[in-house]
Amino acid sequence: MIDYTAEEIRRLLHQTLWHVTIPHAIVFAQSLWRRAHQAVARRIHYERHQRQASKALL
């Protein structure tokens, strides 16, 4: 999973401190899902670029 970014920390603080209508558990679950999804997207991105680079060498 990727590390917390400044934007993610800002989003968490905003949602937990100023939005009392959303339960904190949901806010943190969304954050966890978003970070996991970004990690998968990052891995796929690097794999795709690695494949393209290896094709360019042939």
Kindly list the characteristics that best describe this protein:
58 residues, single chain, 2 helices
Question: How would you explain this protein's 3D organization?
Answer:
- The chain is mainly α and 58 residues long.
- It has one domain (6-57).
- Helix content is 81%, strand content 0%.
- The chain contains two helices and no strands.
- The chain has helices spanning 6-18, 24-57.
- Helix 1 packs antiparallel against helix 2.
- The longest helix is centred in the C-terminal third of the chain and has 34 residues, at 24-57.
- It is rod-shaped.
- The model has no long low-confidence stretch (mean pLDDT 87).
* Rg measurement, Å: 17 Å
Helix content: over 70%
Number of helices: 2
| Spatial gap, N to C terminus | 33 Å
Could you outline the blueprint of secondary structure elements for this entry?
Elements: H1 6-18, H2 24-57
Helix pairs in contact: 1-2
Summarize the structure.
The protein has 58 residues and is mainly alpha-helical.
